[in-house]
Amino acid sequence: MFSGQLPSFLEPRKLADQEAEIKGQTTVARLPRLAEFRDSQDEIVEVALRFGRDEERRQCVSGTVKTALMMTCQRCLEPVRCSVEAHPALVMVYNEDQIKALPEHLDPWLVTDEKIILSELLEEELLLALPLVAMHEQCPTVLHKSAEPSAAAESKRDNPFAVLAQLKSRDD
Fold first, then answer.
1. How confident is the model over 41-55, as pLDDT tens digits?
2. What is the pTM of this model?
3. 57 φψ region: left (φ > 0), alpha (ψ -120 to 50), beta (else)
4. pLDDT tens-digit series, residues 76-123
5. Percent of the chain with pLDDT over 70
6. Backbone angles phi, psi at 46, to 5 degrees
7. Per-domain residue ranges for the chain?
8. Which of 98, 125, 127, 150 is the most buried (most CB within 10 A)?
9. How many Cβ atoms sit within 10 Å of the Cβ of residue 110?
């Protein structure tokens, strides 16, 4: 088992054969694809991955990757801190044919090199786990309802068919 500071590179095939576990932390700043979350760069990313083989003897990896990201609330447009937790459950494949042969309920992880960059796996899993819509449970600012038109204003509005009615009355 590996614990503490996460390595930059992994050898996933070797780790799967050894049934290794990796636990550690990094920061959002060390994940380049999450650079757009500027207010979250100091947030801790907790990682716990288990490598091994499944019942079909396929090499796989599973575990959790979690952090918190500052996003924009889509209701009030104020910053909201969102917990993001990914639960990767991936089967290692080494070519396109293996991807096609994999049952649909399994997620493939294409491993083309002996060593992989760990941050790429972490980034991908966190991006896939982002909420579709970021919102506060209760927005801190009161949203103002748009003024609804009154009945008087509604009656003063021009009727788009009034011109047609005038034309029709001229023809009669």
1. 999 999 999 999 988
2. 0.73
3. left
4. 889 999 999 999 999 998 888 888 888 888 898 988 888 889 999 999
5. 87
6. -95, 130
7. 2-171
8. 125
9. 13
Token pair of 124 as six digits: 């991908």
Structure tokens at 116: 């992989």
Contact between 50 and 64 under an 8 Å Cβ cutoff? The reply is: no
Distance of alpha carbon 112 from alpha carbon 62, whole angstroms: 19
Q: Residues near 39 by Cβ (< 8 Å), separated by ≥ 6? A: 70, 79
Query: pLDDT for 7-22, tens place per residue?
Result: 889 899 999 999 999 9
Length reported for the chain = 172
Residue pair 43/50 in contact by the 8 Å Cβ criterion = no
Alpha-carbon 101 to chain mean position = 27
